[in-house]
Amino acid sequence: MMKSLIQRVQPLFPFLWPYRGRYGVGLLALVGEVAFWVAVPQIIGRGIDDLQKGVTADKLTLYVGLLIGAVLCKAFFLFWTRMILIGISRDAEFDLRNELYLHLSRLSLRYFQRHRTGDLMSRATNDLNAVRMLLGPGIMYSARTLILMTAAIAILIQISAKLTFYCFVLVPVVAVIVSYFGRQVHHRFEMIQAMMSTLSAKVQESVAGMRVIRAYAKEEMDLRRFQELNAEYVERNRKLIGVWGMFYPALEVLMGLTYVIVLWLGGREVISGQISIGSFVAFNVYMGQLAWPMIALGWVVNLYQRGTASLARLNEIFATEPEIADPPTPVIVGPRKLAVAIPGDGHRSIEQAAAGIEIEFRNLNFAYNGLPILRSIQLTIPAGNTLAIVGPTGSGKSTLASLIPRLFDSPPGTLYLDGVDVRHYRLQDLRRMIGFVPQETFLFSDTIRGNIAFGVDQATEEEIRRAAEIAELLPDIEDFPLGLGTIVGERGITLSGGQKQRAAIARAILRSPQILILDDALSSVDTYTEEKILTRLRNILRGRTAILISHRVSTIRDADLIVVLHEGAIVERGTHEELLEQGSYYPELYQKQLLEEELERA
């Protein structure tokens, strides 16, 4: 059993090791508390015996003073025991939460696609709190029970070895009960935590999708689903309460039987003169002191089973290795920057890469979950050039772009930046070179200023405004009462789709990357605004390597090279003019969009 206990809590040892000194001090304080606790019955017993002999007023005052002193000293050590040991659990929780967050930030994109946000949030809150209770009260009460019982038993044996034997005759029964109920609590608490994860995920999804729920008038259906999950959660808790409700009465019955045995046998020894009344009273006081440790033992079992069940759920996260990680010997990336002026009177120039980075795909094949996505991609983007990618939905455009910052990992030897396999770059260095505006725009619950400046360590107000101006967001910002200080809400809910896309473009521009990737980043803006953004972006793209993904020909027509993806393969490539003359899909797309523009003007 002890081996099993150590194995279950072993993952926590690295978090407890830095506090080993404080644990030592806390345990010394605990020993001091127990020492004064066990002194109280001794004082009471001696006082009663002296009362029988005719104690004087001075001696009575002495015993009262000793009792008060012992209680005050016990309270002093109890305070520091709790301050130190419970304080360590809070510090360890702090370290564990930081490590959990750091580990989550290193995990690959696929992990978050396979696990629901609500489930991860439940583990980072409810499960982490259960582990903290194991590290704090669990350790404190376990040590306290062990030390107190050891000291009390030693003194009880001195008073009467025979009574001590009968006092602990039911201990094997207690051990069996604790073991049985402990397993039941562990199993049921695992089910409760799993249900809490499901419930949390449901709430998170419903809140995030409230617009859709209301748009389809599905509030009642969503509420019924929540009530079903909530009822299941309550039912699982009731089952745990049922088990736990039987545990304490069982301990109470056993302690009551022990009192009956000691009272019967001890009373006979007092009558026969084998022990004094004071010693018998002291013996019973010690038994009373042991009653709480026995109850605490049950609580500790509960904390242990809850904590280890939650720890197992956290270990599932810690045991997950990132699919995408830094190479053992990464290439060294040096600074390659040059200030390039961008037209605009009164504006400071934005720092731009001296030269872009050559990107080369060498016969790249990529599959996701066993499903082929990209096939035989052979493509070179010279440094400083702009590549445009078009193709039907599901052709692999976004996947191809996501391979460059290693959001997904390409097979070895298939993707190179400046002649170096992308796998040989340190992730932080690689992603610092890239400004990425994904197809699904994400804004944080922060100010517009904070969202635009998210990708850089420091940015001046002027630089932020300039980036917003290039993205054609500045006029909208100036209409807001708080300007750049406007809170956008969770996921940018207070902004329109076009405003969110332009904020994301401004974020990428301010980063001043060597590679700029815009994945359908203008789909939510009108053609007039799009033209103004593209005009300004042409200055930004000078010297950078850029990849533009779009369904609009107007967005990509000025690119140095345009490729058409179909079913994961490049079926056409060339400039805008070349594809109009020689292509098949591209001219059809171009004519369709011209017709749409004519209809809009009509």
Present the secondary structure layout.
Elements (H helix, E strand, L loop, with lengths): L1 H8 L3 H4 L3 H34 L3 H50 L2 H6 L2 H43 L1 H7 L3 H38 L1 H6 L3 H54 L4 H42 L18 E3 L11 E3 L5 E10 L2 E11 L4 E5 L6 H7 L11 E3 L2 E2 L5 H6 L1 E4 L10 H5 L8 H10 L3 H6 L17 H14 L4 E5 L7 H14 L4 E5 L3 H4 L4 E6 L2 E6 L1 H7 L2 H17 L1
Parallel strand pairs: 5-10, 5-11, 8-9, 9-10
Antiparallel strand pairs: 1-2, 3-4, 3-6, 6-7, 11-12
Structural class: alpha/beta
Q: What would the average pLDDT be, to the nearest integer?
A: 81
Q: What is the end-to-end distance?
A: 81 Å
Oligomer: single chain
Measured by DSSP, the beta-strand proportion falls in: 5-15%
Helix content: 55-70%
Described by strand count, sense and barrel closure, the largest sheet is: 6 strands, mixed
Radius of gyration: 36 Å
Helix segment tally: 21
CATH fold topology of the largest domain: ABC transporter transmembrane region fold
Count of individual beta strands:
12
CATH class of the largest domain: Mainly Alpha
CATH architecture call of the largest domain:
Up-down Bundle
